[in-house]
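Hi W., the 2-acetamido-2-deoxy-beta-D-glucopyranose complex you wanted:
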Amino acid sequence: MRRPLAPLLLCLQLLAIGAARSSSREAPASYAAASRQGHQPAYARNATVYGVSAALCPGCAAWAESLEFLYYHNLVRLARWELPLAWSPRMESYARWWAAQRRGDCALRHSFPEGQFALGENIFWGGAGGAWRPGDAVQDWAAEGVDYSYAANACAPGRECGHYTQIVWRDTTSVGCARVVCDDGGVFMTCNYYPPGNVVGQRPY
Ligand SMILES: *[C@@H]1O[C@H](CO)[C@@H](O)[C@H](O)[C@H]1NC(C)=O
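Structure:
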């Protein structure tokens, strides 16, 4: 059965990762240390995507979380030969505002009420004990791509593809994200996209 893609910015762009899931990402300490020594950040294994992302993130330090968010988004987009996203300080400040609201409860909650999204928004929660990094969030969102059928412009039954389709949405040009370690030790991350993707009846690319 064909299912249309999520209605305009429907509140499907969320993903919960159980606390039991182990993380293969490096801890922030070693990652910052590598950067200070003048090496490429540990996450930036692809020099082309790293360089393109750094150019589109003016003022981002080499070890900045913002650049890590952008790098992983552009890894996904450039693999599809799509234009890379630029970092948006406006989206970032919006995302930071929302992340700060979540510090106390770490709730996997959108900043917009259902049906009233003014920006694209992907959110992530990781339980206490995991050193959840921007790459964990973006890679998990992007992993939904295996369930997306371009021919049908639909997601596999019972699956979620909205995070992926927002990442690769062709008309989206910028992103800004934030990460907060919550009071209970969990991690909440949120990314906002402009122009927003997941427009009903349109294909992402
Ligand atoms: C870097 O990433 C781009 C986009 O995903 C890809 O096309 C390219 O092959 C990668 N380069 C290397 C050396 O892995």
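The longest helix spans residues 65-79.

W.
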